[in-house]
Amino acid sequence: MSRKSAISDILKQKIKGLKCRECGKLYPPAALHVCEFCFGPLEVDYNYDEIRKHISRERIEAGPKSLWRYSDLLPVEGHPTVGLYAGYTPLIEAKNLGAELGLKKLYIKNDTVNHPTLSFKDRVVAIALTRAIELGFTAVACASTGNLANSVAAHAAEAKLRCYVFIPGDLEAGKILGSLIYAPTVVGVDGNYDDVNRLCSEVAGEYNWAFVNINIRPYYAEGSKTLAFEVAEQLGWKAPDHVVVPVASGSLLTKIWKGFNEFSALGIIDGVPTKVSGAQAEGCSPVASAFKEGRDFIKPVKPKTIAKSIAIGNPADGFYSLKAVHESKGTFETATDTETIEGIKLLARTEGIFAETAGGVTIAVLKKLANTGVITRDETVVAYVTGNGLKTQEAVINAVGDVVRIEPSLDSFEKAINIKGEKGRQI
Amino acid sequence: MMIKVRIPTPLRKLTEGKGEVEGDGKTIGELLDSLESSYPGIKERLCDESGNLRRFVNVYVNEEDIRFIHGKDTSLSDGDEVSIVPAIAGGSGGDYGAF
Question: Is residue B6 within 8 Å of residue B79, measured between CB atoms?
């Protein structure tokens, strides 16, 4: 597929600019993320009248098998230039896991196999870097708990952009190596993610870089909508009854809710019955706590959890994720570290999918919601599994079985593996 | 009563460039009114139409977030230090802030 042919027909003038989510003040579609008047976050302001004239199921179906098939609702102005193969991951009907949990129509949205770095971050980065290039940047950066760093580094290599990724110093080895291999500058900060983020806000003010989750955030965050678009399309153009989404900054959940509603408002699907429920690690659950205590503001916490990819104590979109959960009549639930490990193992054992810790949190929360009847048997349910377990091996290394060690002889094998009844059977 | 108030960079245009100013009031609400009379225009940047503090403006009294005290009714004593901090640091000189 040539780059030019990825999308045959780019919709012009779909972006009007940026708009403050709080006070509505308008800004040009530049590298801006905060309202100078009221300090609210900026969001892309689409020209929906124009989009409505063109978008259709048929137009989407004729598009590439990547997230760029939803290009009409993504904040780039031209053809994609980087991350052409991101998205369009499998929606798996999880019959085995569903049977264990008593759910008849359970699906796993499997972003553990996203291209190229095996997490949902490949979606947001494809959008962010395409937009950064459109805006004329030659260097990109991010503050990351690991997955984002991997994805920014890989896509920057593809796009020949200079790259700086900032991570907490104590990340899992797989996530550090998964950035270093692409040869960016990897800065390990002595602190947690919230410290890294605070530092990066200062760095972003000093350097003319495209910080994907700071000054490019309004564009970057929109990439997560494709997790709603794909699920709706893969379910035969309808939104599910209930989704379970891991919550770190809260952006992913907020944008999944937005994605379903955008599709509905544009007539691509018929209504949004979806309850959106958030999953947090018990050791870092500022949004779940606000929900349970009936607060509409987030009290920052110091994270203490093995689920490092979602260990954000001061979530940027915490308020909006809380609002989305309330609007959709979903709920929040948490998982302990032990439950998280059990969640990873349960998904692997039943569906053959190896998720990272955030996926373990999501599956553990799904299980709780099914057990307590919050999710009911006949609902169509989608659990978003957003990252790959091979990157967080430390979490489960002591929770799996051992290798059976033998001499290279049949005798040694049979002594070690005492299986009756299978011997001699030929299929 | 004299209260020291730290002003974030984006609002210093309204305070003649000063990063620290003085105000008066027995509560945060009164303090904001006192700031408005000295530096007209500052209150609408901090409060919405109904007079509530804007969602992405954090106010701390002696390092404690007033949302966890009594919000605008949080009482002040002589010598208290108040910091106004945008919740999202801007690329245009927000000095700090959690994103």
Answer: no
Cα–Cα distances in Å, from B32 out to A40, A193, B11, B13, B42? 19, 33, 14, 17, 8
Q: Give A-chain residues touching B92 at CB under 8 angstroms.
A: 36, 205
Residue B91 lies in a domain: no
- A319 → chain B, closest CA residue: B55
pLDDT for A419 equals 75
Is B96 part of any domain? no
pLDDT band (50, 70, 90) for residue B91: very low
| pLDDT above 80: residue A128 | yes
The yes-or-no verdict on residue A427 having pLDDT over 50 is: yes
pTM to 2 decimals?
0.93
Which residues in chain A have their CB less than 8 angstroms from residue B10's CB? 36, 39
Hey, what domains does chain A have and what are their CATH numbers? 91-117+222-395 (3.40.50.1100)
List C-alpha distances in Å: A385 to A235, A318, A362, A363, A366.
17, 20, 7, 8, 11
Residue contacts between A and B (CB atoms, under 8 Å): 83
ipTM over 0.90: no
Q: Which residue of B has its CA nearest to A198?
A: B98
Q: Which domain holds residue B68?
A: 3-86
Number of domains forming the structure of chain B: 1
HSE-up (13 A, CA, CB side) for residue A159: 29
Can you tell me the distance from the alpha carbon of A175 to that of A152, in angstroms, rounded to the nearest whole number? 12
Q: Report the chain B residue with the minimal C-alpha distance to residue A213.
A: B99
The CATH number of the domain where B59 resides is what? 3.10.20.30
Q: How far apart are CA A114 and CA B9, in angstroms?
A: 41
Across the interface, whether the CB atoms of B56 and A31 are under 8 A apart is answered no
Q: Is residue B94 part of a domain?
A: no
Strands (E), A47-128: 91-93, 105-110
Q: Quick check: A316 and B94 CB within 8 A?
A: no
Q: How far apart are the C-alpha atoms of A56 and A52, rounded to whole Å?
A: 8
Bigger pLDDT: A10 vs A198: A198
